[in-house]
Design goal:
This protein has about 300 residues and is mainly beta. The chain has two helices and 22 strands. It folds into two domains: about 30-165, no CATH class; about 165-309, no CATH class. About 10% of the residues lie in helices and about 55% in strands. About 35% of the residues are buried.
C-alpha cells in the first residue's frame, strides 16, 4: 500500500514539473541568455552566465559608484589604472520576476554601475547574482546600494551601504563609512583617520583596527574586537555582549557602561576609584588624551589588553 507521504511527494514533483514547463514556454523555450532579456519568468537546468564584462581606462584614482540594490558586490584592488566590471548570474530551477541588466558607463571622474531593483521575484531552486570589480588601489569607491559587500586592498575612502547583507572589509588604508540594515560587519587589518560602521541588526567583528576616530554601533548583536587602537569615538550595542582587546598604543580615556550587565577588566588597571562598581568602569590608555565610550543596553562588557595594531 502506498503511503500518504509518498503520494504527496509525487504530487509535488508533478506540480514543479508543470511549473517548469510553463516557465520554459514563457521564455519561448529559448537559450538561457535570451531568458534574461527582461522576460517575466525563466527556467534553467543550472549554469553560470556572465552578463556584463567591460573594462574602462580610468587612471590611478577614479571615483567608482555602485548602485545595484540586492546584487552581491566584490571589490578588489588590481595593479592597472583601469576598472574591470563583471556581472555573473548562477541559476538552477525556476525564477519568476523581472531581471534588469546591470549597466556600466564611464563618467567624467570614473565609472558608474547601476541596476534596477527587480522586485517580486520568486525562486524555486538557486539564484545567485554577483558583481565583481577590479579597481586601482587608489580608487574612491562609493557603494550606494548592494546585497552583501566584500572589499579588499583599497587605499582610499570606502563608502558601502547595504539594505540586507553582510559587509566585509580587509587590508584597507583610508577612511571607511559602512552601514547595513540587516547583516554583520567585519573589518580586518583596517586603518584610517575616521572609521564608521553601523549595523541595525548584526554582529560587529574587528581585527587589527586603528583609527583616530572610530564610531561603531549595532542595534542588536555582539561586538568583538582584537588589537583595537582607539583615540576618540565610541562602540555600542543596543542588545549584545561587548568584548574588546585594546591595543597598548591606544591613547584614550575609555569609559565603559552596561545598562544590564557587568563591566570586567583583564590586565587593565581602572582609572576610577570605585572598585565596587559593576556596571561602569574607566580605563586610561597612553596619556589618555582622547575620549572613547563603550556601552551596551543589555549584556556584559569585557575590556582587556591586546596586541599592537
Amino acid at each position: 500500500m502506498i503511503s500518504r507521504s509518498a503520494i504527496l511527494g509525487a504530487l509535488v514533483v508533478v506540480e514543479l514539473a508543470i511549473i517548469g514547463m510553463a516557465a520554459q514556454a514563457l521564455c519561448f523555450s529559448g537559450p538561457f541568455g535570451a531568458a534574461f532579456a527582461g522576460s517575466p519568468a525563466w527556467a534553467s537546468t543550472g549554469m553560470t552566465h556572465p552578463r556584463l564584462d567591460r573594462t574602462f581606462a580610468t587612471g590611478e584614482q577614479p571615483h567608482v559608484v555602485v548602485d545595484v540594490h540586492d546584487v552581491d558586490v566584490t571589490v578588489e584592488a588590481g595593479s592597472a589604472p583601469r576598472v574591470h566590471v563583471v556581472e555573473t548570474i548562477h541559476a538552477a530551477g525556476l525564477v519568476t520576476g523581472r531581471l534588469d541588466r546591470a549597466v556600466a558607463e564611464q563618467t567624467p571622474d570614473g565609472v558608474r554601475i547601476t541596476s534596477g531593483a527587480g522586485g517580486g521575484r520568486v525562486v524555486i531552486g538557486v539564484f545567485e547574482r554577483s558583481l565583481r570589480l577590479t579597481v586601482p588601489p587608489g580608487a574612491r569607491v562609493d557603494i550606494e546600494s548592494a546585497g552583501s559587500v566584500l572589499a579588499s586592498g583599497l587605499r582610499a575612502k570606502l563608502i558601502a551601504h547595504s539594505d540586507n547583507g553582510a559587509i566585509r572589509v580587509r587590508d584597507h588604508r583610508g577612511d571607511v563609512d559602512l552601514e547595513t540594515a540587516n547583516g554583520r560587519i567585519e573589518l580586518a587589518d583596517v586603518q584610517g583617520a575616521t572609521i564608521g560602521a553601523t549595523s541595525h541588526n548584526g554582529r560587529l567583528v574587528f581585527e587589527r583596527i586603528g583609527a583616530d576616530r572610530l564610531d561603531a554601533t549595532t542595534g542588536n548583536g555582539r561586538v568583538v574586537a582584537h588589537a583595537l587602537r582607539v583615540v576618540d569615538g565610541r562602540i555600542s550595542s543596543g542588545n549584545g555582549v561587548v568584548e574588546l582587546a585594546l591595543a597598548p598604543d591606544s591613547d584614550s580615556t575609555v569609559t565603559a557602561h552596561s545598562g544590564n550587565g557587568r563591566v570586567r577588566l583583564h590586565h587593565l588597571a581602572p582609572a576610577d576609584t570605585d572598585e565596587d562598581e559593576d556596571h561602569a568602569r574607566v580605563v586610561r590608555l597612553g596619556t589618555g588624551r582622547g575620549h572613547f565610550e563603550v556601552s551596551t543596553g543589555n549584556g556584559s562588557i569585557t575590556l582587556t589588553q591586546g596586541a599592537n595594531v
